[in-house]
Records
---
Amino acid sequence: MGNKSNIQCIIFDCEGTLVDSERLVCQAIVNAFAIFNVPLQLEDCVQHFEGGKITEQLAKVQHRSGTSIDIDKLEPIYRQQYALLSETHLQPISGVVDLLTRLKARNIELCVISNSSKAKLKAILSQTQLSHFFGNNLFCGDDVGNWKPAPDILLYSAMYLGFSKDECLYVDDTVQGVQTGIAAGIRTYQYQDIIHSYRAVSDQAPVIRSTIDLLSVIDSPFTSQPHIA
């Protein structure tokens, strides 16, 4: 089946959108703080998670918990804890493999942008067996010297691949990611599963509740952005 819409390229965030890493990130944060005898609740951490640089997330957790642990000591412990968890628990989001397979069949270009390093992004996609869907279409903050929620990386990826903003669609799960898409002027959808339905959503970024809902978005007229829930 060919692609009948004007969307030629779909740009995905990685963690929390393609791979189910957000709870692992939050569990690693909980584990890291526990080493410093600071008890945190996993669900509270998940509820307040907004994406972005991990040092910023750790600082926000410190503010909420009223602690002042040296970030230079906390960050490497967090990264160690996350590495241990991801080795055995990191998986694609439910439905992602089917979605990407169908999009490829429609000859839609697929791309990933991330605030993570290129090495980490490649490792995540390799571990979850998603690399072949994207090839070299991987872009990180280091490529432009700026990170989400600034729109630079999103605009750069579209330009590099040769697509106009109107030919692209962006999917992200975090508040910062949605801000990135809106600032870039690229049609943006926010992925939220039922568990994370508490998050604030911009009127400019309708919600999709499952990854496969993206197909109905592509098939719908682009004169409006329906809220899919």
Note: The mean pLDDT is 89.
---
Amino acid sequence: MSARLVIVLWLFGSICEINGAALSADDMFQRWTDFVATYDNKVAKLESLLTEKDERISLLEAKLDIEIEKKNSEMAQLKRDMTMLIQNTNILNKYKSAFTDEFEGKDVEEMELNVDIENSPTVARPENNAGLQKFKGDNTTHTNISKTVRHDDKDIKVDRLDGSRRGVERETLRRYRRVAPTPTVAFHTKMSSPRTLANGITIMFDEEALDQGNGYNQHDGIYTVPVSGTYVMTWKVLSAIHSVIHTSLVVNGVVMGNSDTDSEDITDIHQTTAIVVLRLNQGDLVLVRVTGTNLGGIVSDTFHGKATFSGWKI
């Protein structure tokens, strides 16, 4: 047994004697063993608690990292959404400014009428002074009379201000109307020069003067309807001397209107203009086709006039 262990045992025995217990060497050794075992157990428990604490800290740090990454992702998405919202707001403001400039002053129509209340048959006068209200202003007594005026087959309630300072009664009728901006759809084309066309040929009006809606193709003479709605279609043809030109308005292969320009028996130029009003759907194909001819020519020049093909949405 080492000297250090003997000293420790002696000290342990002295402590036991001080506590009033004279123990043998075996008892002292047993108590020492129990003491060491208890100490080791407590140390092991402390180490276990520290290990568990470290694991919890690691778990919390991992969760915190995940939450931070999630919040950073949400912040980045929020920044992108804000940027897109600002861009959309700027675009809407531009459209709003353009709309306001174009339709400013068109939403309200004011009419000032000079009405003779006493002689006007359109005024429903209050009976038994009903609707009369007296009030004073600037030391002058006025009468405010509510009445109904017949205007455009509608009863409109207006107020009449009658006073000694007003020789002529003035009434203002406000008629509100909604202005709904709609895109203008229209086209107008011409044939640039005279031509002789055979039966079944689509007439190409190759001189485009107007195409709002971008529907006409001057290279094949076909108008593709850009917006569904009711349209007016019209075309003008001038037949040369001793010529007969029969033309038709064709929509998706179906004839919807005809025109006959006949100069066969006279030495003169004839002109015909045809108009068709019809319902068209977006994507419909509209054209003017020669459906009958004696191989005569179509006149189109600045002196006699040019053959034209036009249309607009109403």
Note: The chain is about 30% helix and 40% strand.
---
Amino acid sequence: MQIRLTVLAPPSGQTPARACDVLVTAPAGTALATVASGLAMAVAGPDGSLGSGAVVLFAGRERLDAQRCALGEPPLVDGAVLSLQAPGEDETVDDAVPARLQVVAGPDAGGVHLLHGGTIRIGRSAEADVPLDDPDVSRLHCEVTVSEDGRVTVADLGSTNGTSLDGAEVHDRPVRLAPGALLRLGESTLRLASGARTPVLATTPDGEGHLRVARVQAAPA
């Protein structure tokens, strides 16, 4: 299982919190305690400026039990943001909701990836920010960029089988990726969900570090 976690170091004086994206490879169900020190070292950098002592991680304002919390289960799923040694911001009072890429078809169907801004590379490689287990997807297939104003674009990265957006071919020049649009690469299809607050959908962990949206059954007529 591979999931990407963003770890925030605590702010120091006038220095803002430092963030580091970490790709974690471990069996589903691995205790957070197994990788906690590695996450701390990743965000501390070579100078080890975070000091010594027990590693404490938070999801928002919730302190995580390193022995009980397991990788691949909420909140430790792909795209999660963790704070080191100090509580993070309470997401329930934050109006900024990240956009999401939902995998709606292909081997990874049901996966949900949060887009926190910047450039997100999609591909088959472990180096991709959104890895897809699709043999028809190139190692680094395409990239999605979220600008500061929330505008989302997509560009192909010279993939072998190409990228299409709502049936139109995407080249290396970025084009707008609108909410609800369907992005096709290989046998996989992804859909962008806007960052606007929407009714909460029931989700379940898939055992591989992603959340699957539960199917809603229509009531009998």
Note: Residues 2-91 form a domain with the Ubiquitin-like (UB roll) fold (CATH 3.10.20).
